[in-house]
Amino acid sequence: MIHFVGAGPGAPDLITLRGAELLKAADVVIYAGSLVNPALLGLCRSQCVIYNSAEMTLEQVIAVMCESEKDGKMTVRLHTGDPSVYGAIREQIDALREAGIRFDVTPGVSSFLGAAAAIPAEYTLPGVSQTVILTRMAGRTPVPERENITSLAKHGCTMVIFLSAGRLEELQQALLAGAYTEETPAALVYKATWPQERIVYAPLGQLASAGAAHGISRTALVLVGDFLGDAYERSKLYDPSFSTGYREAER
Ligand code: SAH
Q1: Which of 136, 162, 168 has the most ligand 1 atoms within 8 A of CB, as the residue to mutate?
Q2: Cβ proximity of 77 and 5 under 8 Å
Q3: Which residue, judged by its Cα, is nearest atom 4 of ligand 1?
Q4: What is the pLDDT of residues 148-168, one digit of tens each?
């Protein structure tokens, strides 16, 4: 059986209990070496055979999985954060289905959640934004044109931008062409939850220069939106004058 497992954003104790148990029991582990914290591999048994998928093609990954399955072994495919976010798991799942190999998925703490905790921030701040857009810039790999940053930025909601810290100048311009202004708060979160974690705050008009000044060009998320500012409304859920299914309003 193949287990896709979310490794979490970096800190080794942010993997789920289920994910950790699977790693401890694995005969074979294929981990995304570019981003998964290698400290997690310390959970594996000494006999466990470990592959770094950063050096492999999809075909090679599937071949390792098929071989392992043929030998009756258990394989963990370890993805950074949560496998459903830029994890390229669909193509693996389809190949496994075709090969008749059983699999399941254990979720992980995505880096966008690690980044919110690092700040700490509430993405869905009442009176400010109730929507989070997770996206990335088009780069060497494309993004559908209808999802270009400027069109998404027209909502002015909370945005978390993956895989784009190397193109901050372009990103800044694209965001400014939407609903944000030069003063809209933004942050770069580098290696959230790792010991090297760094947070750089800048108004959107200075995002690219702040990134350059701090030498951040990869393994970072860009957060943008007024959720990083000071103004918001308090929640109705905990407002004494508001009744909920669990509590009557105070008079
Ligand atoms: N599946 C992962 C995302 C993989 S795409 C997840 O759920 O987080 C890789 C991108 O994720 C990086 O380029 C960076 O933008 C972001 N990323 C991954 N780990 C990060 C971390 N600890 N801190 C900040 N950004 C991170």
Answers
A1: 162
A2: yes
A3: 86
A4: 999 999 999 999 999 999 999
**Does 169 reside within a domain?**
yes
Residue for token pair 């030998």: 71
pTM of the model: 0.96
Number of domains in the chain: 2
Question: How far apart are alpha carbons 246 and 250 in whole angstroms?
Answer: 13
What is the Cα–Cα distance from 33 to 73, expressed in whole angstroms?
22
Tell whether 249 is covered by a domain: no
Question: Could you tell me if residue 250 is inside a domain?
Answer: no
Q: What is the CATH number of the domain that holds 213?
A: 3.30.950.10
Task: Give, using CA atoms, the residue closest to atom 11 of ligand 1.
Answer: 162
**Contact indicator for 6, 36 with CB cutoff of 8 Å:** no
Residues 131 and 166 occupy one common structural domain:
yes
**Domain coverage including residue 40:** 2-109
